[in-house]
Amino acid sequence: MNDELTIIVPVFNEEESLLSFFREMDRFISNSPVASRALFVNDGSTDKSGTILKEKCSNTAHYNYLTLDGNYGLSTAIKAGIDACETSLIGYIDADLQTKPQDFLLYLEYFPEYDMVNGIRQKRQDSMVKKFSSKFANAYRRLMINDGILDTCCPLKILKISYARNMAFFTGMHRFMPALVKLQGGKVKQIPIAHYPRYYGTSKYHLWNRLVGPFFDTLAFRWMQNRNIRYRIADRK
Protein backbone atom coordinates (compact mmCIF):
# COMPACT_ATOMS: atom_id res chain seq x y z
CA MET A 1 0.00 0.00 0.00
CA ASN A 2 1.46 3.35 -1.11
CA ASP A 3 -1.14 5.52 0.56
CA GLU A 4 -0.33 8.15 3.17
CA LEU A 5 -2.79 9.24 5.86
CA THR A 6 -3.57 12.58 7.47
CA ILE A 7 -5.85 12.46 10.51
CA ILE A 8 -7.85 15.63 11.17
CA VAL A 9 -8.38 16.38 14.86
CA PRO A 10 -10.82 19.26 15.50
CA VAL A 11 -10.11 20.92 18.84
CA PHE A 12 -12.33 23.26 20.81
CA ASN A 13 -11.42 23.72 24.48
CA GLU A 14 -9.91 20.26 25.01
CA GLU A 15 -6.94 21.21 27.21
CA GLU A 16 -7.77 18.47 29.72
CA SER A 17 -7.57 15.62 27.19
CA LEU A 18 -4.91 16.79 24.75
CA LEU A 19 -1.76 15.45 26.43
CA SER A 20 -3.32 12.01 26.82
CA PHE A 21 -4.58 12.22 23.25
CA PHE A 22 -1.07 12.91 21.95
CA ARG A 23 0.19 9.79 23.73
CA GLU A 24 -2.54 7.71 22.08
CA MET A 25 -1.79 9.25 18.68
CA ASP A 26 1.94 8.57 19.12
CA ARG A 27 1.07 4.94 19.70
CA PHE A 28 -1.01 4.70 16.53
CA ILE A 29 1.53 6.47 14.32
CA SER A 30 4.35 4.22 15.51
CA ASN A 31 2.26 1.12 14.62
CA SER A 32 0.64 2.36 11.42
CA PRO A 33 1.53 0.38 8.27
CA VAL A 34 1.23 3.59 6.20
CA ALA A 35 2.98 6.92 6.69
CA SER A 36 0.64 8.83 8.99
CA ARG A 37 0.42 12.30 10.49
CA ALA A 38 -2.12 14.36 12.41
CA LEU A 39 -3.44 17.82 11.62
CA PHE A 40 -5.03 19.55 14.61
CA VAL A 41 -7.60 22.22 13.77
CA ASN A 42 -7.96 24.66 16.65
CA ASP A 43 -11.53 25.91 16.26
CA GLY A 44 -11.19 29.11 18.28
CA SER A 45 -10.39 27.53 21.65
CA THR A 46 -10.43 29.93 24.60
CA ASP A 47 -8.56 27.67 27.05
CA LYS A 48 -4.93 26.47 26.85
CA SER A 49 -5.52 24.15 23.91
CA GLY A 50 -3.75 26.48 21.48
CA THR A 51 -0.65 26.68 23.66
CA ILE A 52 -0.49 22.89 24.02
CA LEU A 53 -0.87 22.40 20.27
CA LYS A 54 1.91 24.86 19.45
CA GLU A 55 4.29 23.21 21.91
CA LYS A 56 3.61 19.62 20.84
CA CYS A 57 3.50 20.29 17.11
CA SER A 58 6.71 22.32 17.11
CA ASN A 59 8.67 19.31 18.42
CA THR A 60 7.24 16.54 16.21
CA ALA A 61 7.48 16.25 12.42
CA HIS A 62 4.27 14.26 12.02
CA TYR A 63 2.12 16.80 13.90
CA ASN A 64 0.84 20.06 12.48
CA TYR A 65 -1.88 22.49 13.49
CA LEU A 66 -3.87 25.37 12.12
CA THR A 67 -5.88 27.86 14.15
CA LEU A 68 -9.13 29.36 12.93
CA ASP A 69 -9.86 32.99 13.81
CA GLY A 70 -13.03 32.05 15.69
CA ASN A 71 -15.26 29.18 16.71
CA TYR A 72 -16.97 28.01 13.50
CA GLY A 73 -18.16 24.55 14.53
CA LEU A 74 -17.24 20.98 13.72
CA SER A 75 -18.21 20.94 10.03
CA THR A 76 -16.04 23.97 9.27
CA ALA A 77 -13.10 22.57 11.25
CA ILE A 78 -13.27 19.33 9.26
CA LYS A 79 -13.48 21.23 5.96
CA ALA A 80 -10.48 23.35 6.89
CA GLY A 81 -8.53 20.17 7.57
CA ILE A 82 -9.58 18.62 4.26
CA ASP A 83 -8.59 21.80 2.39
CA ALA A 84 -5.11 21.61 3.95
CA CYS A 85 -4.63 17.86 3.40
CA GLU A 86 -1.98 16.67 0.92
CA THR A 87 -2.23 12.88 1.39
CA SER A 88 -4.27 10.26 -0.47
CA LEU A 89 -6.20 9.22 2.66
CA ILE A 90 -7.78 11.44 5.25
CA GLY A 91 -9.07 10.48 8.68
CA TYR A 92 -11.12 12.17 11.36
CA ILE A 93 -11.21 11.69 15.12
CA ASP A 94 -12.35 13.77 18.10
CA ALA A 95 -9.82 14.72 20.79
CA ASP A 96 -11.97 13.64 23.74
CA LEU A 97 -10.64 10.02 23.71
CA GLN A 98 -14.08 8.43 23.62
CA THR A 99 -12.67 6.74 20.53
CA LYS A 100 -8.98 5.80 20.28
CA PRO A 101 -6.59 6.34 17.35
CA GLN A 102 -5.39 2.73 17.68
CA ASP A 103 -8.66 1.55 16.12
CA PHE A 104 -7.58 3.19 12.85
CA LEU A 105 -5.39 0.11 12.39
CA LEU A 106 -8.58 -1.88 11.81
CA TYR A 107 -9.58 0.45 8.97
CA LEU A 108 -6.50 0.44 6.77
CA GLU A 109 -6.89 -3.11 5.45
CA TYR A 110 -10.07 -2.07 3.62
CA PHE A 111 -8.28 0.34 1.29
CA PRO A 112 -8.19 0.69 -1.67
CA GLU A 113 -11.21 -1.65 -2.09
CA TYR A 114 -13.46 0.77 -0.20
CA ASP A 115 -13.62 4.53 -0.50
CA MET A 116 -14.49 5.15 3.15
CA VAL A 117 -14.51 3.22 6.40
CA ASN A 118 -16.87 4.36 9.16
CA GLY A 119 -17.02 3.04 12.71
CA ILE A 120 -19.98 1.66 14.64
CA ARG A 121 -19.52 2.45 18.32
CA GLN A 122 -20.09 -0.66 20.45
CA LYS A 123 -21.47 -0.51 24.01
CA ARG A 124 -21.55 3.28 23.99
CA GLN A 125 -20.33 4.83 27.22
CA ASP A 126 -22.64 7.84 27.20
CA SER A 127 -25.54 9.16 29.25
CA MET A 128 -29.02 7.81 28.58
CA VAL A 129 -30.08 11.16 27.10
CA LYS A 130 -27.11 11.21 24.73
CA LYS A 131 -27.66 7.61 23.63
CA PHE A 132 -31.39 8.17 23.11
CA SER A 133 -30.95 11.36 21.08
CA SER A 134 -28.27 9.72 18.93
CA LYS A 135 -30.36 6.59 18.34
CA PHE A 136 -33.41 8.67 17.44
CA ALA A 137 -31.46 10.94 15.09
CA ASN A 138 -29.85 7.97 13.33
CA ALA A 139 -33.20 6.22 12.87
CA TYR A 140 -34.82 9.40 11.51
CA ARG A 141 -31.93 9.99 9.11
CA ARG A 142 -32.03 6.41 7.77
CA LEU A 143 -35.80 6.66 7.29
CA MET A 144 -35.52 9.92 5.36
CA ILE A 145 -32.45 9.30 3.18
CA ASN A 146 -32.06 5.49 3.29
CA ASP A 147 -28.25 5.60 3.45
CA GLY A 148 -27.89 2.36 5.41
CA ILE A 149 -25.35 3.91 7.79
CA LEU A 150 -25.74 2.69 11.38
CA ASP A 151 -23.61 5.29 13.20
CA THR A 152 -23.09 8.24 10.88
CA CYS A 153 -21.69 10.52 13.62
CA CYS A 154 -19.07 8.04 14.82
CA PRO A 155 -15.99 10.24 15.25
CA LEU A 156 -13.61 7.73 13.70
CA LYS A 157 -13.46 7.74 9.91
CA ILE A 158 -11.01 7.29 7.04
CA LEU A 159 -11.79 8.15 3.44
CA LYS A 160 -10.02 8.82 0.18
CA ILE A 161 -9.13 12.47 -0.30
CA SER A 162 -10.73 12.50 -3.77
CA TYR A 163 -14.13 11.82 -2.20
CA ALA A 164 -13.54 14.21 0.69
CA ARG A 165 -12.80 17.11 -1.64
CA ASN A 166 -15.89 16.45 -3.76
CA MET A 167 -18.32 16.41 -0.82
CA ALA A 168 -20.87 19.20 -0.64
CA PHE A 169 -20.00 21.24 2.43
CA PHE A 170 -22.59 22.88 4.65
CA THR A 171 -23.06 23.46 8.37
CA GLY A 172 -23.95 20.05 9.78
CA MET A 173 -22.24 18.08 6.99
CA HIS A 174 -20.19 16.15 9.56
CA ARG A 175 -23.39 14.18 10.26
CA PHE A 176 -23.58 13.00 6.64
CA MET A 177 -20.03 12.18 5.58
CA PRO A 178 -20.73 8.50 4.74
CA ALA A 179 -23.91 9.47 2.87
CA LEU A 180 -21.99 12.18 0.97
CA VAL A 181 -19.44 9.58 -0.13
CA LYS A 182 -22.22 7.22 -1.24
CA LEU A 183 -23.87 10.09 -3.10
CA GLN A 184 -20.73 10.16 -5.28
CA GLY A 185 -21.01 6.44 -5.94
CA GLY A 186 -18.38 5.54 -3.35
CA LYS A 187 -18.27 2.31 -1.34
CA VAL A 188 -18.52 2.65 2.45
CA LYS A 189 -17.44 -0.09 4.87
CA GLN A 190 -18.81 -0.10 8.43
CA ILE A 191 -16.94 -1.88 11.21
CA PRO A 192 -17.45 -2.09 15.00
CA ILE A 193 -15.07 -0.15 17.24
CA ALA A 194 -14.65 0.37 20.97
CA HIS A 195 -16.19 3.33 22.79
CA TYR A 196 -15.02 4.81 26.08
CA PRO A 197 -16.43 7.11 28.79
CA ARG A 198 -15.55 10.78 28.58
CA TYR A 199 -13.05 11.37 31.38
CA TYR A 200 -12.00 14.87 30.34
CA GLY A 201 -13.94 18.10 29.81
CA THR A 202 -17.58 18.34 28.84
CA SER A 203 -19.49 17.49 25.69
CA LYS A 204 -20.19 20.34 23.28
CA TYR A 205 -23.55 18.79 22.37
CA HIS A 206 -26.87 18.53 24.19
CA LEU A 207 -30.39 17.32 23.47
CA TRP A 208 -31.34 20.47 21.56
CA ASN A 209 -28.48 20.47 19.06
CA ARG A 210 -28.57 16.66 18.76
CA LEU A 211 -32.19 16.64 17.60
CA VAL A 212 -33.20 19.99 16.13
CA GLY A 213 -30.05 20.53 14.04
CA PRO A 214 -30.07 17.02 12.54
CA PHE A 215 -33.80 17.34 11.74
CA PHE A 216 -33.30 20.32 9.45
CA ASP A 217 -29.95 19.08 8.12
CA THR A 218 -31.59 15.80 7.07
CA LEU A 219 -34.26 17.69 5.14
CA ALA A 220 -31.53 19.69 3.39
CA PHE A 221 -29.60 16.52 2.53
CA ARG A 222 -32.73 14.80 1.19
CA TRP A 223 -33.35 17.78 -1.08
CA MET A 224 -29.77 17.56 -2.35
CA GLN A 225 -29.96 13.76 -2.68
CA ASN A 226 -33.10 13.95 -4.82
CA ARG A 227 -31.50 16.51 -7.15
CA ASN A 228 -28.02 15.08 -7.32
CA ILE A 229 -26.55 14.91 -10.85
CA ARG A 230 -24.64 11.73 -11.72
CA TYR A 231 -23.78 10.28 -15.10
CA ARG A 232 -21.32 8.02 -16.94
CA ILE A 233 -20.00 8.58 -20.44
CA ALA A 234 -20.65 5.53 -22.65
CA ASP A 235 -18.79 6.74 -25.74
CA ARG A 236 -16.93 9.75 -27.03
CA LYS A 237 -14.72 10.93 -29.87
Task: Give your account of this protein's structure.
The protein is of the alpha/beta class and 237 residues long. The protein has one domain (4-226): Spore Coat Polysaccharide Biosynthesis Protein SpsA, Chain A, CATH 3.90.550. The protein contains eight helices and seven strands, in the order βαβαβαβαβαβααβα. Strands 3-2-1-4-6-5-7 form a seven-stranded mixed β-sheet. The radius of gyration is 18 Å and the shape is globular. The mean pLDDT is 88.
Concise description?
This protein has 237 residues and is α/β, with parallel strands linked by helices. The chain is built from 8 helices and 7 strands; from the N terminus they run E-H-E-H-E-H-E-H-E-H-E-H-H-E-H. The N and C termini lie far apart (35 Å).
- Report the CATH C-level class: Alpha Beta
CATH superfamily: Spore Coat Polysaccharide Biosynthesis Protein SpsA, Chain A
Q: How far is the N terminus from the C terminus?
A: 35 Å
Taking the sheet with the most strands, its summary is: 7 strands, mixed
How many β-strands, per DSSP? Answer: 7
User: Strand pairing plus helix content: what structural class?
Assistant: alpha/beta
Q: Report helical residue fraction.
A: 25-40%
Q: Averaging pLDDT over every residue, what do you get?
A: 88
What fraction of residues sit in β-strands? 15-25%
Return Rg in Å: 18 Å
The rough form would be described as globular
Helix count?
8
Total domains, how many? 1
CATH A-level architecture? Alpha-Beta Complex
How are the strands of the biggest sheet laid out side by side?
Answer: 3-2-1-4-6-5-7
CATH fold annotation: Spore Coat Polysaccharide Biosynthesis Protein SpsA, Chain A
Low-confidence stretches: none
H and E string: EHEHEHEHEHEHHEH
